[in-house]
Amino acid sequence: MELTGVGRRHGLRGPWILRDVGLRVPRGALLRIEGANGSGKSTLLRLLAGIDAPSTGRITGRPRTAYVPERFPAALPLTAAGYLTRLGRVHGLRRPAAARAALEWLERFGAAGHAHTPLSRLSKGTSQKVAVAQGLVGRPELLVLDEAWTGLDAASREILDRAVRERVADGGSVVFVDHDPRRLAGHCHAVHRVAEGRLSAVPAVPAASLPRVRVEAVGTAPPPGRLPGDPLAEDLGGGAVRLTVAAADSDALLRALLTARPPWHIRSVSAAADAPEEPRP
């Protein structure tokens, strides 16, 4: 997907919000958009999602897209599962597959108990879980997230981080805005900043330069599933492993190990000042 010379203004004589924007969104890319409040970030995301049309310029190669807005229209006359099933159908899933996907994402976000609750009766936090799930249920080729983490609890934010990385690993593209500068740091392929209506590239933070933590733990079973932060793992023998992960993901990693069944024993936690070592054979 590519934006060429794209501009956006409200009305024929309104001020320009964006001007001469050029942006390429490759397949399998994770792009972060930054900028001050009111700079035009949300306008850019709406253009990418096809919600708004450019006033000038052109957008080509638009893939099948899902959009999670900053504010979710929770007053729709549908249940959580009914709404997600409809969105799955919009993305081309057959009804049984759409219904299964709806329940799977509600369960993943810890909201399965609200599957048959009308959207208008959901709490703000649960509504946001449904909003995020609707962007994921159809496995879109392009996922556009506008402050989608806002309103989610810590566990759900970690789940969304993981879901974004999975979507990219599967060949999808994700473009997002978030107020937390650490959000998916080290995983972004490119970072762009909106300022004074213009879009410019800024250096992405390389994963190797992020603060990292090493966790040594002992357990009687393999580490539970896909661990937060996708840590580098070294087998130390005797059931012990050393896991190196970005510091931002270390709390989630420790929680996953301690809540495993049976739980893992944490032997040590330390800063990893040097470069991660390659896993031992």
Q: How would you characterize the overall build of this protein?
A:
There is one protein chain. The chain is an alpha/beta fold and 281 residues long. It folds into 2 domains: 31-202, P-loop containing nucleotide triphosphate hydrolases (Rossmann fold, 3-Layer(aba) Sandwich), CATH 3.40.50; 211-271. It contains 6 helices and 13 strands. The protein has helices at 41-49, 80-90, 95-108, 124-136, 154-169, 250-258; strands at 2-9, 16-24, 30-35, 56-60, 65-68, 142-146, 173-177, 190-195, 198-202, 212-218, 232-237, 240-246, 265-271. The strands form 3 sheets. Strands 5-6-7-3-8-9 form a 6-stranded mixed β-sheet, sandwiched between helices. Strands 11-12-10-13 form a 4-stranded antiparallel β-sheet, covered by helices on one side. A 3-stranded antiparallel β-sheet has the order 2-1-4, with helices on one face. Helix 2 packs parallel to helix 4. The chain is globular. Residues 275-281 have low confidence and may be disordered.
Annotated CATH topology of the largest domain: Rossmann fold
* The CATH fourth-level homologous superfamily of the largest domain: P-loop containing nucleotide triphosphate hydrolases
What is the string of helix and strand elements? EEEHEEHHHEHEEEEEEHE
**What distance separates the N and C termini?**
41 Å
**Overall pLDDT score:** 88
Number of domains: 2
Number of strands: 13
Determine Rg (CA atoms, Å).
21 Å
Sheet with the most strands, sense and barrel status = 6 strands, mixed
Proportion in helices: 25-40%
